[in-house]
Write a structure and sequence with these properties.
The complex is a heterodimer of chains A (399) and B (23). Chain A is mostly beta strands. Helices cover 5% and strands 28% of the residues of chain A. In chain A, the strands form eight sheets. In chain A, strands 1, 2, 3, 4, 5, 6, 7, 8, 9 and 10 form a ten-stranded mixed sheet that branches. A two-stranded antiparallel sheet of chain A has the order 11-12. Chain B is 26% helix and 0% strand. Classes of the chains: A mainly beta (399), B mainly alpha (23).
């Protein structure tokens, strides 16, 4: 069964499954221990290396399990972890499991343009105002009209010394917003890249001052980015393209890495994201099989009551019109053939002498005849007329 | 009544060379 069609074969909204979008992706860490090698960390020795790949490799390793930053001996104690997801995803949650006491301040950012620009998703700090210039999130949750980057409490250390930072995209969004109907929420959850900035280590008796017990290193084991491949409701899966890049397996007449536009011939109405109520499939232009290309005309779309705005281009088989639905000049409709028939339009074939022109009636095929001439193609003298020797007046009254 | 089609050979093209070229 095709998830993008209902039982009757009609298009319906479909979305890829929830996955860990970071799994197997490369993580860029601004600091990783082992270069130069120390007794505890040697980047060139797999048994003592703590590379950033451990953050997204699903724990398939025989060596250490945790990434570890270099020893940081003086402020600023910032370390950045960046993971490119390869394409746009709609985020559900982001989490990072720390192997040591979690930092006291972390900023979570996202990019929607493959790392060219960044915006914050949330902050996690025991000193929101001091570290990020923001008030701590109210206990009642977000109150703004739309989603925003709020400052949440810093992740708590567990009894075993580890910790977990967990962020749900809903945490920054006021209740009641619906993904289908809220473009703002759609924008909020969309990301191509995720960045975590570990900005301040946790120290005993933390007061917010930067005087940590130095040197210090961050350590974490599992970065998860839970989300769905963004396909705007027009695909149920994402697959690697020939270049290995992840792209949506688009349906509903759409195309593009996110199914974000209509396929070339499917432009009878504007592209729209699918919703639970309406698939908003892109519709093929209606060209009666006589054209392979069409363009969208917004004016015509409005005039049609927002039903059809496609205009066929290069109508073939001697057809013409917005839908290639009538015959071009010099041709007429053969009533014995379907409009979609390649030979639906026949040449007028007006007689070169008997007809007054070359264009016939497009419905009946009747050519315009000179006086005294008759017949569909004007090739005979009418009753009471006989052929003359003049090509200008080929039929004259019989004396 | 079946009317014969116009016989092109019967026309006098002397003054209508242009027309004949079209034909």
């Amino acid at each position: 069964a095709d998830p993008c069609k209902d039982d009757g074969g009609a298009p319906r909204s479909c979305v890829p499954g929830l996955v860990n979008a970071a799994l197997g992706r490369e993580v860029l860490a601004s600091s990783t221990c082992g270069r130069p090698a120390t007794r505890a960390c040697d980047a060139s020795d797999p048994r003592r290396a703590h590379p950033a790949t451990l953050l997204t490799s699903a724990g398939v390793t025989t060596g250490p399990l945790c990434w570890r930053s270099d020893l940081l001996s003086r402020a600023p104690l910032n370390v950045t972890l960046t993971v490119a997801l390869g394409k746009a995803f709609e985020l559900v949650f982001v989490s990072l499991r720390f192997c040591s006491v979690p930092p006291a301040s972390v900023a979570l950012l996202k990019s929607q343009d493959h790392g060219r620009s960044w915006v914050p998703l949330g902050f996690f700090s025991s000193h929101c105002r001091q570290d990020y210039g923001r008030l701590p999130v109210p206990t009642t949750g977000p109150v703004g009209p739309g989603p925003e980057a709020l400052c949440f409490p810093a992740p708590q250390a567990q009894p075993d010394g580890s910790g977990l930072l967990a962020f749900s995209v809903q945490d920054g969004s006021p209740p009641g917003l619906d993904l289908d109907s809220s473009p703002v929420l759609q924008d909020w959850v969309t990301a191509t890249d995720i960045r975590m900035m570990l900005t301040r280590p946790s120290v005993p008796g933390d007061t917010g001052a930067s005087a940590a017990t130095l040197p210090y290193s961050y350590s974490a084991a599992e970065l998860q980015v839970g989300g769905r491949c963004k396909c705007n409701g027009h695909a149920s899966q994402c697959l690697p393209d020939p270049q290995g890049r992840l792209v949506c397996d688009c349906r509903h007449g759409t195309e593009g890495s996110d199914c974000g536009r209509c396929k070339p011939f499917y432009c009878d109405r504007p592209w729209q994201r699918a919703t639970a109520q309406e698939a908003h499939a892109c519709l093929a232009c209606s060209c009666n099989g006589h054209a392979r290309r069409c363009r969208f005309n917004m004016e015509l779309y409005r005039l049609s009551g927002r039903r059809s705005g496609g205009v066929c281009l290069n109508c073939r088989h001697n057809t013409a019109g917005r839908h290639c639905h009538y015959c071009r000049e010099g041709f007429y409709r053969d009533p014995g053939r379907a409009l979609s028939d390649r030979r639906a339009c026949r040449a007028c074939d007006c007689h070169p002498v008997g007809a007054a022109g070359k264009t016939c009636n497009q419905t009946t095929g009747q050519c315009p005849c000179k006086d005294g001439v008759t017949g569909l193609t004007c090739n005979r003298c009418a009753p009471g007329f006989q052929q003359s020797r003049s090509p200008v007046a080929p039929c004259v009254k019989t004396p | 009544e079946v009317m014969p089609t116009l016989d092109m050979t019967l026309f006098d093209w002397t003054d209508y060379e242009d027309l004949k070229l079209e034909v």
